[in-house]
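Replying to the earlier thread about multi-chain prediction with a worked example.

Input:
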Amino acid sequence: MSDATKESGGTGPSHRHVEIGVALFMALLALIGIYGSVQVGIGWGSEGPKAGFFPFYVSLAVIIACAVNLGKILASADEGELFAGWDQLKLVLAVVVPAAIYVAIIPYAGIYVASALLIVAFMKALGRYPWIHAIAVGVIVPILTFLMFEMWFLVPLPKGPLEKLLGY
Amino acid sequence: MLEDIGNLFHGFAVVAQPFNLLLMVVGIVLGVIVGVLPGLGGANGVAILLPLTFSMSPTSAIIMLSCIYWGALFGGAITSILFNIPGEPWSVATTFDGYPMAQQGRAGEALTAAFTSSFVGALFAVIMITLVAPLVANFALRFGPAEIFSVYFLAFCSFIGLSKEPPFKTVASMMLGFGLGAVGLDQVTGQLRMTFGVEQMLNGFDFLIAVIGLFGIGEILLTMEEGLSFRGSPAKLNLKVVFHTWKELPRYWLLSLRSCLIGCWMGISPAGATPASFMSYGIAKRISRNGHKFGTGQIEGVVAPETAAHAAGTSALLPMISLGVPGSPTAAVLLGGLLIWGLQPGPLLFTEQKDFVWGLIASMYMGNIVGLLIVLTCVPLFAAILRIPFSVIAPVILVFCAIGAYTVHNNTFDVIMMLVFGVAGYFMKKCDYPLAPMVLAIVLGDKAEEAFRQSLLASQGSLKVFWSNGLVSTIMTLGLVALFWPVIQAGWTRARVLTGKLRAAE
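Result:
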């Protein structure tokens, strides 16, 4: 991996920092878990261990494991390894951002229209396809999924104003 | 025993119904596609296609889903050999010798060897399942909560001790999985916990969402980052090459047998297909006379990992159907399917759902035969899929992941959670946190907790209940051995080095 980043000549966040971030984030989740467990009781009740008993110890284990992992990272020498180059992360964001918009508009536009928009935008922006190709794929895939799920396997998917207009 | 054989034939009759045969073929084809595409794999492929089976009978549903799994196992080999891209983690070891063979123009030979060994490995594992599963299930009927918990304990400990990832990272990711699984309704007291008043958290985190997010979205992000361009060898497979390779393969029967055994062993313990394939490749390299030539295109280097991976992938279903403890994430998804279709996984399946269990086992036999035929004949077609550019494939996979996540509970909030899991999966994967234990912990969390609390309730809170009789003590001790395996191994090596030094000193 480091070879690839060297070749592109790029810089990026250090692997070490991301590792530390991930460990801290997990520990944070575990702290929330401990808080939630204590709320419902972690001791011994009339029906045996209370509801928070198991999650409490599980969260405690996460914190201990994260502490060990953190200790290991801090104890090791910083070799300047990159997590990923900025140009690589840009590509990753180029998926995450449209995907986030996509899941946000599904409840309003319905899954078929949202999917069509996602595919067209993706092919246009990243693949640099001509409009005609992007629109063709963007229309055909949702229609096929519609046939497959709603017609053949009878699984209803979220629908928006367009489907209502067409009478579904 | 005889009764089991009768049941098996009854199972074959169920599978041979035209509708089920059709589902089998559809399943295999979908499975190979899933296995070939980056970002889709056995576990999330099955998870995404799970909703298609909601309106089917459980037996037809499991036939289709398990066939998707077989297909995915076969599909991984195609991309490894032709494109040097492992479609699945367990086919990484296949690239070592498979891709060099393809570069030398021996792609047909490598593919035939890979498919045939996959088939042999799977067949071995299925026969093992046929013989062993009913016995295990029968035995397990007598299990109390303490024994059940000890089985879970063994399963999770072997994850920590046997996986390649750093043990404390495995612990962190597994325990986080248990924690996520615990959110929502407490099964024992019926109390709500850790929901913090958020309505969407009432149902907890569904593991299917986690599977689709962690494996599906996470994998797309990884692929995107690597900016893969697929350039592969031409895929041609004619009958002459197939028969020629088949004539050659029996020579490696010992290698196959060893790989089968490694695969079955690793598959039953939840370490899974990936380490099995590496281990089998490693041992073959050490033992074989051509060991030093491994990596330059040795057919043995394809046979060993493929046989083991398929044997492991198949035998991962043994604990799933006989104990209700899945041996791999894909088996976990199938287990989730059982719950959705209204079946209770566990040893009782063998007595209460005979049609289902034996239909599944029969479909393993048939599915692998059909799978072998399909992949041998359709390789060029599947290879063509990989030539579709990623900028077209990626959004389509995203759409299917979203559909899969939505249909689990008909809830758009789950689609958002899927994306969150996806980003988390990307970071975890990049930092060497294994994802499989997390998924299994989310699935099994409730059950493991229930067994744990019931045992403690019976013993008034004393942990001695887990060492109260021979059976439970044995399983628990095995679990501890698996847990501390790296330490034991290190200690053993050090002891040997020490005695060696002492002898040298004498």
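Residues 15-40 of chain A form the longest helix (26 residues).

Feel free to reuse this layout for your own posts.
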